[in-house]
Amino acid sequence: MQSWVSIVIAILALIAVIPSAIVAILTLRGKIPLTRPEPEPIMSKTREKKPRKRKWFLAISITITAVAIAALIFALVMLSRPKTPEIVGETEEKARSTLSELGIKMSVVDSVWSEEIPEGCIVTQNPNQGTILKKGEEVKIWISKGIQMPEFKGIARDSVLDLLTAYGVYPKIDSTFTDEVTKGQVLSTNPPAGVKVPVGESVTVTVSIGRVTCPSCGRIVAPDWTYCEFCKAKINPE
User: Fold this and answer.
1) CA quadruple 157, 162, 167, 171: dihedral positive or negative?
2) 122-126: strand order across its sheet
3) Separation between Cα atoms, residue 219 and residue 61, nearest integer Å
4) What are phi and psi of 157, to 5 degrees?
5) pLDDT in tens, 25-61
6) Residue 125's closest CA among 151, 147, 94, 152?
7) CATH fold match for the domains 92-144 and 147-238
8) How far is CA 3 from CA 69, 87, 122, 138, in A?
9) How far apart are CA 75 and CA 72, in angstroms?
10) What pTM does this model have?
11) Residue ranges of the domains in the chain?
């Protein structure tokens, strides 16, 4: 947008310069007189009119020309400045090379978690794409450190498996008897919540199969769910 404005200013400046410059040149060369030619004297009683000065015309022409030239120079300067390219999603090395060719510096502010941008690539840039900078100015960037493992405890098994698959990992199911979460919900993951998701590797998802009680004595018999440790009765998960 700013480049289009600069181009329009340059065109308008050229349009304004041409007629004003022509008038100024012709005036200085004597093609256009600064004063009106004096009329032939007329023998009459009427008072002779003084010639009207036209120096103001030259002054206005020079002023318009100067303003137009200044606008043209400003537009050309703005057009010569580099615009910030889009570097989000690029690797740090490639982005630094691109900016260096434009005479722009780059600095890494921090590393952040990102589900959309691969690890090692740029998540955010400041200023944004299209901003006109001076050569030597700086673009700040934030680098992706990958996907952070979410807290899945209490979430339905199928939802967790779908999300992990979308992350690019291979979920492995492990089951356990517990009353911490409802049957069919995830109890924990390995790696645990808060660490980097190992893209391309496996993640163990421990799923609750509910609390097991002995049908004979009513006691909780996890983790041995085949026979009750107290009454030796055969049991099955609820």
Assistant:
1) positive
2) 105-112, 138-144, 122-126
3) 104
4) -55, -50
5) 555 555 555 455 555 555 544 455 544 555 666 667 6
6) 94
7) yes
8) 18, 20, 26, 20
9) 5
10) 0.56
11) 2-33+54-80, 92-144, 147-238
Q: What is the CATH number of domain 92-144?
A: 3.30.10.20
Among 147, 78, 82, residue whose Cα is nearest residue 111: 147
d(CA 204, CA 186): 11
Burial class (CB in 10 A: 0-12, 13-18, 19+), 70: exposed
Joined tokens for residue 109: 């502010």
Q: Which residues of 125-156 are buried (b: 16+ CB within 10 A; e: fewer)?
A: beeeeeebbeeebebebbbbbbbebbebbeee
Which numeric CATH code is attached to 147-238? 3.30.10.20
Residues in the chain with pLDDT < 70? Answer: 1-59, 61, 70-81, 212, 214, 216, 218-227, 230, 233-238
Place of tokens 């998960």: 237
Q: Can you give the pLDDT at residue 55?
A: 63
Compute the distance between CA of residue 153 and CA of residue 189 in angstroms, rounded to an integer. Answer: 8
Residue 1 pLDDT: 47
